[in-house]
Input
Amino acid sequence: MFRNREDAALQLAQRLKPLELKAPVVLAVPRGGVVIGAVLARELGGELDVVLARKLRAPYQRELAIGAIGEDGAVYLDPAASRIEGVTEAYLQAERDRQVAEIEQRRRLFRSAAPAVDVTGRPVILTDDGIATGSTLFAALHVLAAQKPGEVVLAVPVAPPETLERFRAKCDRVVCLLAPEYLGAISQFYGDFTQVEDDEAVRLLRESRAVKPAVGPAPETRR
Output
């Protein structure tokens, strides 16, 4: 178990240091992932940014993700979504519209604190405070692929093993500290999993950007 997000991030940074990523861009999923990302950027000499993706919610179970949408409008839909009651084309369009509006609000919030980082040709660490279904991060990968990074490393404190396997096919590397066979809720692996508010996430992004990492020549693209 991790004491809190900072503890998890410090442990994760130790696992990432041997990779010797040169001036990586750390892309964090708000809001909890920004705490993880800020520590990774500090410990690895990286540059922090956010990737904006939202889960698409099931009709009668709002906490259940049936897919996700990225800030570029790309939609990832879970293969099992069509078997869930109430998931129709009309429902999906309405849910997509709701989440697009939320993404636009988040974009205004975070981009007012720091502009988007150009990841072209640079190593990217994609992170969050944990993975349940993985839908939001799959959407984030769709957003990221169009930006042509040099290397993509998925780095998370905790995730189910079957979900990690799906990510291995889409990332250059996957680093995860805990992969329990049964993952009921991410919070159960943290002593303190206090909700991160928007103002804290914005503050962390702004403060991290105030510390300028040394960025050398872009590494050769491996893709």
Q: What stands out?
A: Residues 215-223 have pLDDT under 50 and may be disordered. The first helix runs from residue 5 to 16. The chain has one domain: 5-196. Residues 5-196 form a domain with the Rossmann fold fold (CATH 3.40.50.2020).
